[in-house]
Design a protein that fits this description.
There is one protein chain. With 199 residues, the protein is mainly alpha-helical. The protein has one domain: Fumarate Reductase Cytochrome B subunit, CATH 1.20.950. Helix content is 69%, strand content 3%. It is built from 5 helices and 2 strands; from the N terminus they run ααααββα. The chain has a two-stranded antiparallel sheet with strand order 1-2. α2 runs antiparallel to α3, α3 crosses α4 and α4 packs antiparallel against α5.
Length: 199
C-alpha cells in the first residue's frame, strides 16, 4: 500500500469515527443538563433554614425552569437536526433496548420534575420567586393538590436519581471495561477523540 492510499484509508477511518460521535450541540446540551441537575441536587439537599432557605428554594426552582427549557430544546433538536450515532455492532440487543428505555425515562423525568416543582409552588397559593423576580399567587391554596404535587416531586426525584445512577454506571462500564466507544460518543472536545481504527 503506497503512502497516498494509506492516507486515504486513514481519512476514511477517521470520518467513520467522527460519524460515531454525537453532534457538538447535542454534546454541549447534554453536559449543560448535567450541570443543572447537579446544581438542583445540591440546592435540594443543603440544609434549608432561615432566610437562606428562601434563596436556596429560589435557586432550585429557577434551575428547574432552566432545565425544563434546555430539555425541551434538546428534544426538538434531537427530533429534527441532531446526529444520532448508531450503537456499536458488538452491543447486544438487550443492552440497546435497556439504553433506550433508560434514555427515554430520563427525558420523561427531566420534564416531569420541573413541572411538578412548579405545580407545588402554584398550588401552595402564595407568591414565589423565580430568577430573582416575584411571581404573584396564581390561585388560592389547594391543599390536596399541593400535597400531591409535593409527593410526586419527591418520589420523582428518587426515581430520577436512580435513572442517573444507572446511566452513569452503564457509561463507565462501556468506557472503562468494554471500551466500545459508547462513552466517547458524548464526551466533549479532545476527550472524544479516540484514535480512529487503522484500516
Amino acid at each position: 500500500m503506497d503512502i497516498r492510499t494509506e492516507l486515504v484509508a486513514i481519512e476514511v477511518a477517521a470520518s467513520t469515527h467522527r460519524g460515531a460521535q454525537f453532534d457538538g450541540l447535542s454534546v454541549r446540551l447534554h453536559w449543560l443538563t448535567v450541570l443543572l441537575i447537579a446544581f438542583q441536587l445540591i440546592t435540594a439537599f443543603l440544609p434549608h433554614e432561615g432566610e437562606e432557605a428562601k434563596s436556596l428554594l429560589m435557586l432550585h426552582r429557577s434551575a428547574g425552569v432552566l432545565t425544563l427549557a434546555v430539555v425541551v430544546f434538546r428534544l426538538i433538536w434531537r427530533g429534527r437536526f441532531a446526529h444520532l450515532p448508531p450503537f456499536p455492532a458488538s452491543m447486544p440487543k438487550f443492552q440497546q433496548w435497556a439504553a433506550k428505555i433508560n434514555e427515554h425515562a430520563l427525558y420523561a423525568f427531566l420534564v416531569l420534575q420541573p413541572l411538578t416543582g412548579l405545580a407545588d409552588a402554584v398550588f401552595h397559593g402564595r407568591p414565589f420567586v423565580l430568577f430573582g423576580l416575584q411571581v404573584p399567587a396564581l390561585m388560592a391554596m389547594d391543599k390536596p393538590l399541593f400535597q400531591l404535587s409535593g409527593e410526586i416531586h419527591e418520589f420523582g426525584a428518587r426515581i430520577l436519581m436512580a435513572l442517573i445512577a444507572l446511566h452513569i454506571g452503564a457509561a463507565l462500564l462501556h468506557g472503562l471495561v468494554l471500551r466500545d466507544g459508547v462513552l466517547q460518543r458524548m464526551l466533549p472536545g479532545r476527550f472524544s477523540r479516540a484514535r480512529a481504527p487503522r484500516p
